[in-house]
Amino acid sequence: MKEAILIFTRIPVPGHTKTRMMPYLSEKECAQLHICFLKDIERECQKTGRDLYVFFTPEGKQNILFPIFGRTVKYREQKGGCLGERMKNALEAVFREGYRACILIGTDIPELRASYLENAFEKLRTRDVVLGATSDGGYYLIGMKQLYTAAFENQTYGHETVFENTVEALKDKNISIDYVPQLSDLDRPGDLQEFTERYRNSVSCRKRFLNRQGETYSENTRKFILSHRKISIIIPTYNEEKTITHIQKQLEPIKDKCEIIFADGGSTDKTLEKIKKEFKIIRTKKGRGCQMNAGAKASHGDILFFLHCDSCLPPNTLEQIRYVTKKYRVGGFGVAFASPNFFMLTCRIISNYRMKVRGIIFGDQGMFIERKLFLEMEMFPEIPLMEDYQFSLDLKKRREKIGMTTNRIYTSDRRYPKGTIPKLRLMGKMYSLRRRYRKGESVEKIAEEYRDIR
């Protein structure tokens, strides 16, 4: 029996496709994302061995599709006014060529599998129509053994009852229906985040994105989304005129690749004067927790990277963050100290062990976290001290694992006094303060002691 798959798509021209992703993605990036969708779908369709038709709109520039689908598939321009009319006309034209089963699919569903298509054709052996719903109330797949116009007549599209209305219209005509698994359209920026979460979950269960041969589903889409996640760098400042120039020099090469926000807590020195105009500044009350929260509220990134002003960034900072967040919702760089002192090396080893094994991460270790998780946790506690420690304890309660980059952030040892014995005393004092905090002692009292020892 002759069977065909009809792919309904716009030609991926910048500014004319995936526009609901803007301004999160640029016009060019929207087109690139659409191309990734098409490549993933084409791969799955070819596995079925069915004849493939590509129905495109608008007319012209179909050569853009040739590198994706090749020249052996059959290209047709979409004909008709509304979407329903265009789908009806496409199916009618292919049935006229002698096909006895046709499946029409959209292109916003890069998680489509060949097995879903095979299943749809199998169901058509005993049913008149097969449908695949999308999570937003539409459908990504409709298959028929002959043209049933009831599926398209008096229908409107782009709302949450499209699937329901289509089913009712077919049932009113006593047309038998079966279904394939529901998938998610990727139409808006939030859909990309949900896609990332589904992929991360699949890394552990090894199901959704892998087939029996170990091949990855949605590979092109996945790589694009993970490499284009937006990062916001949030830097709390208070009287940092000695370090502010150095941190800006480090940020200069990446300023166009991410969002950078300085959250100032009321500096009284020349900190604000020295921050260049190309960087965003927000003013808030003093306190790291308060400042970082204010920076997060003013940001737009998918990933929030909290950076101390006296830190030295490692190479490929953004790439390392994106790599870790493929598997983890929260992570850090780990810390190294710009000091040859043996006990500072010891502090580095202990701090990074505590982060990697015990899941406790401090601010000077370069914490980064998915925006959604940060908001779910109601941000940093706005307390005088221990905001990062308490946040880590809260992460542990949620059983969130912390990923670590391969490179470390170098930070100043300025809070430590000179000399080996004074350093050891301070390390011991800080350990004691954390223990007292865990036992419920007043954080205000602990903060006063902490200021004294600095």
* Largest sheet: spatial strand order: 3-2-1-4-6-5-7
CATH third-tier fold name of the largest domain: Spore Coat Polysaccharide Biosynthesis Protein SpsA, Chain A
Low-confidence stretches: none
CATH architecture of the largest domain: Alpha-Beta Complex
Radius of gyration: 28 Å
CATH class of the largest domain: Alpha Beta
The beta-strand count equals 17
What does it look like?
There is one protein chain. This protein is an alpha/beta fold and 454 residues long. The protein has three domains: 3-185, Spore Coat Polysaccharide Biosynthesis Protein SpsA, Chain A; 230-412, Alpha-Beta Complex (Spore Coat Polysaccharide Biosynthesis Protein SpsA, Chain A); 415-454. It is 40% helix and 18% strand. Helix 1 (27-48) crosses helix 4 and helix 15 runs antiparallel to helix 16 (443-453). The mean pLDDT is 89.
Strand-helix topology:
Blueprint: E1 3-10, H1 27-48, E2 51-57, H2 66-69, E3 74-77, H3 83-96, E4 101-105, H4 114-123, E5 129-134, E6 139-144, H5 162-172, E7 177-183, H6 189-205, H7 219-227, E8 231-237, H8 244-251, E9 259-264, H9 271-274, E10 280-283, H10 288-298, E11 303-306, E12 311-312, H11 317-324, E13 330-332, E14 335-337, H12 342-356, E15 368-370, H13 371-376, H14 387-397, E16 402-404, E17 409-411, H15 420-438, H16 443-453
Parallel strand pairs: 1-2, 1-4, 2-3, 5-7, 8-9, 8-11, 9-10, 13-16, 14-17
Antiparallel strand pairs: 4-6, 5-6, 11-15, 12-17, 13-15
Helix pairs in contact: 1-4, 1-7, 15-16
